[in-house]
Amino acid sequence: MPLDIPAKGATGNHLKGAKNVPLSAVFGADGVVTKEDIEKALKTAHYDPSHPTITACNGGVQASLLALALKHAGKQSRVYNGSMFEIAARAPEMISEKK
């Protein structure tokens, strides 16, 4: 679930086939929002829990925060440590314009 952060050398800022869940949908002024609000954000993003969940962003910080929110909602996920920079370097064809 990448966030909208451009990667150098890529043609866009979105991983093809990925779902986008902005941090603003799962964090509020007091921290992580309710489990119900997280579920709503996941439903809006067309999240499919039958697939492995891997969070990604430009440098790992936002992906880690999203993974924390997912854990709060009882969802398992992994953080892709390589970030969009690594994907852009190894497989730039995986990155497209946001849809």
List the helices and strands and how they pair.
Layout: E1 14-15, E2 27-28, E3 31-32, H1 35-44, E4 54-55, H2 61-72, E5 78-79, H3 83-90, E6 95-96
Parallel strand pairs: 4-5
Antiparallel strand pairs: 1-6, 2-3
Describe it.
This protein has 99 residues and is of the alpha+beta class. The chain has a single domain (14-96), classed as Rhodanese-like domain (Oxidized Rhodanese, domain 1). It is 30% helix and 12% strand. The chain has 3 helices and 6 strands. The chain has helices at residues 35-44, 61-72, 83-90, and strands at residues 14-15, 27-28, 31-32, 54-55, 78-79, 95-96. The strands form 3 sheets. The protein has a two-stranded antiparallel sheet. β2 (27-28) and β3 form a beta hairpin. The chain is globular. GO terms for molecular function: thiosulfate-cyanide sulfurtransferase activity. This is Rhodanese domain-containing protein. InterPro entries: Rhodanese-like_dom, Rhodanese-like_dom_sf, TST/MPST-like. Keywords: Repeat, Transferase. It holds the Pfam family Rhodanese.
Tally the helices: what do you get?
Answer: 3
How much is the average pLDDT? 83
The CATH class, by name, is Alpha Beta
Structural class: alpha+beta
Q: From the 3D coordinates, which CATH architecture would you assign?
A: 3-Layer(aba) Sandwich
Overall shape: it is globular
Q: Oligomeric status of the shown chains?
A: single chain
Give me the side-by-side strand order of the main sheet: 1-6
Uncertain runs are 1-11
Number of domains: 1
Largest sheet: 2 strands, antiparallel
Distance between the termini: 13 Å
Element order: H for helix, E for strand: EEEHEHEHE
| Range of strand content | 5-15%
Question: What fold name stands as the CATH topology?
Answer: Oxidized Rhodanese, domain 1
Number of strands: 6
Share in helix: 25-40%
What gyration radius follows from the Cα positions, in whole Å? 13 Å
Going by CATH, what is the homologous superfamily? Rhodanese-like domain
